[in-house]
Structures are given as structure tokens and as C-alpha cells.
């Protein structure tokens, strides 16, 4: 049988052809406009068959490969075809049971690498990255107290558990085990450890060191010991506080916190210019950090505020107000500011009424009456 008019019969070329992409049966060869619409396909050899009429074989255009890469791989002893590709100086292995599946996986792997969907493996250790995150990303931006909390969580709970595991090898199960070990502590502590883990690995993801955040879906363990609930003081506790404050040298400081809702660090840095007895109000614009002893702004923007002064504090404040407007309202000799804060609030440990064991807000609030 003769070939239809307009067709040319040619023998296969002697050179090796790229892999076939698809087989299309047509009466005529594709026009040049077809190739323009789909530049990924180009006409290959044509061969006439009596039963199938005209078969035209198309081939997919692939990136230029070396002669070694262009050789067809052989099946390994395990029954798989394997092909290695190099991207940015690193080799990636692709395996498949069939040649067709192997070439498909190769093309997909190249596409994902060039699109940045696959990130070359880094040899960064997880423990080293935790220290780098703490020093380079948190220390310049967080307060000293928060920095100490991060450092304690990393050095005591996170870094020892990760050991010398590479950052890219850390799995969610590894981090969940770290979090489960915090069940012997309070629920607040476990929540802080989880927040630290999420922040550490989220920064690693943003840096391009890992594809995803393994700490994103961690769940808090059930604490073994019951948590303490915050409550307001009772009327009896308020009576005891005022009774001790009547004769104690720090009584005005405590009453100012009680009636004006001030934090200890906010009350201890008040100056004479912050008190306006004519309008009966005080201004809060700074606070003392107990860990470092530094005076800085309040914890939030809402911390800068103006508070009305109750009538029962007016006489005490007028008697204690220094003459200089820049002088501190609460002072003592020989020590720094935070010493008074520690003595009156943090040092008392025993459950006393505060009458015979010195004065302590913590002692009074913990008393059992």
C-alpha cells in the first residue's frame, strides 16, 4: 500500500532520540502553528504503517544534559531504576520501578528544585540553631527578663533533648516528646515552652533551612499538679494589709498599689512631678525591671495612664511628697531602688500575717485566716 499524498517516508535517524512524550495518529503532519502553540512538543520521526495509517511521534523538549546524564539508566538489583541529578552542588537521587515513572519523577524533581519548593539539606544542628535564634533574633528585641526565660527553656528543656540532631531531621514527634516532659510543671510553663519551640522553628522556616514548622501543631500535656488560680483579695485580707500598712515604713507604697491599681515596679519609680494633689491624680509613665534594676517604659502602651487619687490617700501623699519635683516618692539609703521591691514583695516566703515577721505583700496575701 502506498502512502497518502503529501507524506514523506524517512528512515529513523542514526543518532539517539530523546524520550517519547506522546503518540498521536493523524492523516497529516502538524503545522508550524501547532508547534508555536505548544513549544514543549516538536515533531519527531514519521513512519508509515499499513494498518495504523500515519503515526507521528512527538518528543518533549528537555533541559540540555551531558552525554552521561542522557544515557538510559539500568535497573538495580532491587528492581528499581535510579537517576541522580545535581542542583546547586548537591546530588538528589530519584528511583522508580519503571523508566516512564523515573523520567516523570525526574522532571517533577527538577521543577520543584528550580521553583524553590525543595530546599537543599543543611547540616545545621538543631541545638546550635536554638542558640543562634536566641542571640541573634531575640536578645536585641526582648527584655532581659524575657531573654532569661527563653534561655532557661532552651538550655534546660529543648537543647538537651534534641542533642546533635540536624535541624532538617527534627520531626513533630520529637518536639511533642519534649513538651510531654513538661507535664510535671505548671500549665503556664508548658505553654511557654511550646511558644519557644514554635518561634524557633518558624524562624528556621523563614530562613529557608526547613520546609515546614514541625512545632506548629503541638498539643499541651495535661499537668500533673493542679494549677493555681488568681483571685482578688478578701475583705479580711484587705483589713490585715491596711492594719500592717498603718505603721510600716512601706505602708504608703502598698496602699498606693492597693487603691490605685499600680504594679510594684510602677509605684516604686513615681516622682514628685507625677503626683498632682490639686487635681487628685497621678501619672504612670515608667516602671522598674526587678531583674536588672533598670527603669524603662511600661509593658504596653496602655500602661502609660493617668489614675485618680482616692481621698483617703491625699493626706499621706502630701506628707510624703518631696520638695524637688524630680525626687523619687519612695526612697531609702545605701541601696538601689529594687532592694525595697525585693524586701517588701519577693523575699517573704512563710505564710504569716505580716505583723510579727516584717511586712510583705506576698505574706499577707498567702495568710490563712
Q: What are the segments in which pLDDT stays under 50 over at least 5 consecutive residues?
A: 17-69, 346-369
Q: How many helix segments? A: 13
Tell me roughly what share of residues is in helical segments: 25-40%
**Structural domains: how many:** 4
What's the number of extended β-strand segments? 10
GO molecular function, one term: DNA binding
InterPro entries: CB (IPR044068), DNA_brk_join_enz (IPR011010), Integrase-like_cat_sf (IPR013762), Integrase_catalytic (IPR002104), Integrase_recombinase_N (IPR010998), Integrase_SAM-like_N (IPR004107), Phage_Integrase (IPR050808)
Domain Core-binding (CB): 124-205
Function: Site-specific tyrosine recombinase, which acts by catalyzing the cutting and rejoining of the recombining DNA molecules.
